[in-house]
Write a structure and sequence with these properties.
- With 126 residues, the protein is an alpha+beta fold.
- It has one helix and five strands; from the N terminus they run αβββββ.
- Strands 1, 2, 3, 4 and 5 form a five-stranded antiparallel β-sheet that branches.
- A hairpin with a 2-residue loop joins β2 and β3.
- It is rod-shaped.
Length: 126
């Protein structure tokens, strides 16, 4: 009389569960890292928009009225962004002004910033 057994042994089931558990942990870790990066990218995008908006505001001002300053903090999606700008007149050449706009914020307790630079020049009609 021949006895046949169909199915899996306990060892095979345990090995399969261990492989599944390790794979699940790896995928979970990737998902957590991905969500953190998405959050940081969203904040960085917001900082870029604020910096570009400030550059456009400054571009619309009279060339001689440009001065370094700091704007009040702006809160977007629960994050406070501070925008400041510096004006360096006659840099890189006479009649030109270098504007540096810096947007700073905190991402999970770590200071982050985005810096945008632009060179303005006055156009004098002949």
């Amino acid at each position: 009389m021949k006895l046949t057994c169909n199915g899996f042994t306990l060892i095979e089931v345990l090995v399969g569960m261990v492989i599944f558990a390790i794979s699940s942990l790896a995928v979970t870790s990737l998902m957590v890292n991905h969500s953190q990066l998405v959050s940081l990218n969203s904040q960085s995008s917001e900082a870029i928009v604020l910096a570009q908006d400030k550059l456009e505001d400054l571009r619309a001002m009279n060339f001689t009225d440009l001065a370094s300053n700091t704007a009040p903090a702006v809160t977007k999606k629960g994050i406070a962004y501070t925008t400041s700008w510096t004006v360096q007149k006659n840099t890189p050449a006479t009649g030109m002004t270098t504007l540096t706009v810096t947007v700073a914020w905190n991402h999970k307790g770590v200071a982050k910033s985005y810096v945008a630079k632009s060179i303005f020049s006055s156009v004098v009609p002949s």
